[in-house]
């Protein structure tokens, strides 16, 4: 019996020992335990439930906010799309409206030329070729729209001062799509030199020479505009930023008005093959090349006839280039005009057009 009680006590001590040790440790640490408050036992569970409820509520709110945000984004995207579509439509209509006056003007000037029998179009240039036959002479008109300044250049014969080549040869050598003869020249010691002020690649070939007698300078500026006139000072021409240009006689139109043609050039020769270059208000170029049998004044056009023709077609500025046997019009691989010499004449300067 005593042995049994001892065993029970030992078992009780083993079972309760850890609990008693824990209570003693808590007591020594100063921790107070309120055994009467049952809430202390279930607090952790209540916190979890409360936190879970708060998280669930937050998630519901976030979901609701997300739906609202997505709806707002969708509406904003739809509005942006509509606005973009509307703006694109406005831009297209504005561009069409802006280009309409140019279109109308081009139709008006083109109607005076007739229907082009050949056209060349690219991102750099537009060329339209017409036939001229008013009854007293026969020739060709080439209307040129330079879309880029570098679509037109001027080259020297054999790329040297004093050199001379046919326009066809220079067109082929440069890979141009069209070309015409340019300024006048003077022969000396077997070479052919351009007259007066001549500009190639923005440089004065023979230096600047003040205009004298009836000579003028005509060329293309760095911005691709036709420039020309008589210049007493280099500074006046420099302000126009010449990139290419040559000289000859006389001026036919200036700012839409007929320029006086000196009597000498009205009758010497009276009629002849001619090459004339001019521009419209929209900066399109018009080039006339007139055929003739020779330079004796029995065929071709008079300068007065060409002046009247250009004025009637609305050309603003026009300049008579070298004519007679020098007149040359090349388009592609074709010599369009009929050279009065029976073959193209080698000349020192050539205006070239590039596709």
TrEMBL record:
This is Phosphodiester glycosidase family protein. Keywords: Glycosidase, Hydrolase. GO terms for molecular function: hydrolase activity, acting on glycosyl bonds. InterPro entries: NAGPA. It comes from the Bacteria. The keyword ATP-binding does not apply. It comes from Paenibacillus puldeungensis. Transmembrane segments: none annotated. Residues 174-354 form the Phosphodiester glycosidase domain. The keyword Hydrolase applies.
């Amino acid at each position: 019996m005593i042995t049994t009680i001892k065993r029970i006590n030992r078992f009780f001590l083993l079972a309760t020992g850890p609990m008693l040790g824990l209570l003693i440790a808590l007591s020594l640490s100063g921790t107070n335990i309120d055994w009467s408050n049952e809430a202390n036992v279930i607090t952790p569970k209540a916190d979890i439930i409360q936190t879970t409820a708060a998280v669930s509520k937050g998630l519901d709110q976030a979901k609701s906010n997300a739906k609202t945000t997505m709806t707002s984004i969708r509406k904003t995207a739809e509005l942006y799309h509509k606005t973009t579509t509307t703006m694109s439509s406005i831009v297209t209509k504005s561009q069409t409206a802006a280009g309409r006056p140019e279109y109308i003007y081009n139709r008006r000037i083109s109607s005076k030329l007739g229907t082009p029998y050949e056209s060349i179009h690219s991102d750099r240039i537009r060329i339209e070729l017409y036939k001229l036959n008013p009854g007293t002479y026969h020739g060709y008109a080439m209307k040129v729209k330079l879309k880029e300044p570098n679509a037109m250049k001027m080259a020297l014969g054999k790329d040297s001062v004093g050199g001379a080549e046919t326009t066809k040869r220079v067109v082929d050598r440069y890979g141009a799509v069209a070309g015409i003869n340019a300024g006048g020249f003077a022969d000396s010691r077997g070479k052919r030199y351009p007259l007066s002020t001549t500009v190639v690649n923005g440089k004065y070939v023979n230096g600047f020479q003040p205009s004298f007698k009836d000579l003028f300078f005509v060329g293309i500026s760095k911005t691709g505009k036709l420039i020309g006139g008589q210049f007493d000072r280099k500074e006046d021409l420099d302000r126009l930023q010449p990139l290419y240009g040559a000289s000859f006689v006389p001026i036919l139109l200036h700012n839409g008005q007929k320029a006086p043609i000196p009597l000498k050039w009205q009758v010497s020769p009276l009629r002849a093959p001619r090459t004339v270059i001019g521009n419209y208000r929209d900066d399109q170029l018009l080039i006339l090349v007139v055929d003739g049998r020779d330079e004796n004044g029995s065929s071709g056009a008079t300068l007065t006839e060409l002046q009247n023709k250009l004025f009637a077609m609305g050309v603003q500025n026009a300049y008579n280039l070298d004519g007679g046997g020098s007149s040359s019009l090349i388009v592609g691989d074709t010599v369009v005009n009929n050279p009065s010499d029976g073959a193209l004449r080698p000349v020192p300067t050539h205006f070239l057009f590039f596709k």
